[in-house]
Amino acid sequence: AQQFKIKSLLSVLKRFPVLNQFVTAQKLDDEWRAHAMLDFAQHGLELHGDNIDAEYYWGKVFRLKNGAGQYLFPNIKIRMSLLLILPFSNASVERKFSVLKNLKTENRNRLNTDTVVPLMATRKGIKKVGDSVKFNPSKNIFIVVPELLTITTAHLKSFSPV
């Protein structure tokens, strides 16, 4: 059996009450205790101190199945998946809202999402270098704005003055 610092996940449920709508506390605690009783070496889940990659570890735990082919920890998977996607800081979210505030001003308050998302993706690629501005779009911009891949010279000529 493993020596986990957290004996029960009830404190986590109290801290994040919205998680209670997905599974019952009893099922979650039962799975947590079963998780603590796993033979980690048998499943390739050796713990080497406190420095383990959470995504790797939980990814392996979430794929464990019993003899009937059922996942061993479906309730833990739901809870941990939700907890692992939470940002540990609001800074990145605040930066995105700051960019959005600069884009969507009082004069441009009717911009729809289809316009704002590409503008934000474009804004992310603009960097000031000394006295000049450099535009290095990420590869993700083409995922966000697939229409950019279909721009041809014919499109460009239609925008140029005659």
Any overview of this molecule?
The protein has helices at 10-15, 25-36, 54-62, 74-84, 91-103, 113-125, 141-144, 153-159, and strands at residues 126-129, 132-135. It is mainly α. The chain starts with 9 loop residues before the first helix and ends with a helix. It has two domains: 10-84, no CATH class; 91-159, no CATH class. It is built from eight helices and two strands; from the N terminus they run H-H-H-H-H-H-E-E-H-H. Strands 1-2 form a two-stranded antiparallel sheet. One of its GO terms (molecular function) is protein dimerization activity.
Write the layout of secondary structure elements.
Blueprint: H1 10-15, H2 25-36, H3 54-62, H4 74-84, H5 91-103, H6 113-125, E1 126-129, E2 132-135, H7 141-144, H8 153-159
Antiparallel strand pairs: 1-2
Helix pairs in contact: 3-4, 5-6
GO molecular function: protein dimerization activity
InterPro entries: HATC_C_dom (IPR008906), RNaseH-like_sf (IPR012337)
Protein name: HAT C-terminal dimerisation domain-containing protein
In short:
With 162 residues, the protein is mainly alpha-helical. It is 46% helix and 5% strand. A hairpin with a 2-residue loop joins strand 1 (126-129) and strand 2 (132-135).
Q: What general form does the structure show?
A: elongated
Rg to the nearest angstrom? 24 Å
In whole angstroms, the N-to-C terminal distance is 78 Å
- Sketch the topology as an H/E string, one letter per element: HHHHHHEEHH
What's the number of helices? Answer: 8
Structural class by sheet pairing and helices: mainly alpha
Question: Within the largest sheet, what's the order of strands?
Answer: 1-2
InterPro entries: HATC_C_dom, RNaseH-like_sf
Pfam families: Dimer_Tnp_hAT
Organism: Ignelater luminosus (Cucubano)
GO molecular function, one term: protein dimerization activity
